[in-house]
Amino acid sequence: MVNVILQLYPQIAATREERIEQRPIGRDAQRYQELIRDFPKIITAADELGLWGVSSIEHHFHSEGYEVGPNPGLLNAHWAALTKRIRIGQLGYTMSAQNPFRVAEDIAILDHLAAGRSFCGFARGYQSRWTNILGQHLGTRATLSPSGTPDQMAQLDEAGRAARISDDQINREIFEENVELVQQAWKQDSVEWKGRWQVPFPYEEGVDWSMTATRELGAEGEMDENGRIRRVSVVPKPLTQPHPPVFVSSNASKATVEYCGPRGFIPTYFSKIERAAEFGGAYVDAAAAAGRTYALGQNQALVRWGQIAATADEARRMVAEYDGDIFRDLYAGTTPMTFDPADPVGSVLNSGLWVVGTPEQVRDEYVRLWEQLPAEYVVLIYHYAQQPAESVIRQLELFMQHVKPALDELTDYGQA
């Protein structure tokens, strides 16, 4: 069976004219309050409809009001209290700009609040405006902002291209170190580390700690005989053992899937099907080399935006109304996707990431996608509250009724 995840991008509802006249609309407290107030309608509907999970994003400083999602963990905690069956998570924490110990603690607490109904997501960070600022203490640079299209890379001189490649490598190194620390915090009674992070700090001297009871009551080796902290114990550990499922957001780079495979992480492809399908086999091979056996598509996720309506024209109108502005201003401004003012809806559809049409057309398109990569998870993204809560719920109803049964037949390797 395919597992359906609803991914909500919190977006202040407004026309572009309103965004100009009321700038910065991302700080409009009343509009954000309206967004928060109607969240429970969608979350409880997703629970009742039988979706596997619901998630949100981490993005900061969105003055334009397009992705007002600075703290997905707080939303997750609220959602956990509203639901009974659905899993709660985020896709995801940008680990190149995070404190890994805080993330380990937050996700562990969320897992307890949800009684084990949780999952977590990690991302590398592609938006320079906030990744570079919040990650400055680690030397982080965003991986893809402004957009790194082949044409743009070709316009850079040799030094510029080298800097772009270096920034990407540093970002990956920080990401992988931080994720490893989260893993150790979850799995081990205590952690010691010497890298960009030092545990203890300062590492050689240790931390002078006057609570001598730690030597007897704390983790083994946490305090030495001189009363200095040499390791730390991250509490609590998750309820789910060894930890909740881990998703890693990606544009389907081979390096990412080869990183995810041996660890059992779930690569989450924000990419065209040709690219995702190309690396689906690479993920299976990388996992197998580490002793993990997956069928093609198993333990992988494909991300899609979309609109379903009674007619194809109505579905395209919904794209224009709910997806067009953010695509033009944000996606085309920060990623390789391009926008043609002469054909706004066509620009969105040409990205290869939207599935749009009647229930039958959407079902058939998803079947075509899943014939190339029968992913175990499908992540459905909606721009709530630009798209009203009732409309998002209707999209979920149509997907679960018309599309999911067809995908279940193509994912017969078992439930995660």
Overall shape: globular
* Total domains: 1
**CATH architecture annotation name:** Alpha-Beta Barrel
The total count of helices amounts to: 14
Integer average pLDDT? 94
Assembly type of the chains comes to: single chain
**For the record, what is the CATH homologous superfamily label?**
Luciferase-like domain
Radius of gyration: 22 Å
First CA to last CA: what distance? 9 Å
Show unreliable segments: 145-149
Report the structural category: alpha/beta
What fraction, in percent, of the residue positions are helical?
40-55%
CATH T-level fold name: TIM Barrel
Give the number of DSSP strands. 14
Biggest sheet descriptor: 10 strands, parallel
Can you describe this structure?
With 416 residues, this protein is α/β, with parallel strands linked by helices. It has a single domain (3-147, 243-408), classed as Alpha-Beta Barrel (TIM Barrel). 46% of the residues lie in helices and 13% in strands. It is built from 14 helices and 14 strands. The strands form 3 sheets. Strands 1, 2, 3, 4, 5, 10, 11, 12, 13 and 14 form a 10-stranded parallel beta sheet that branches. α13 packs across α14. It is globular.
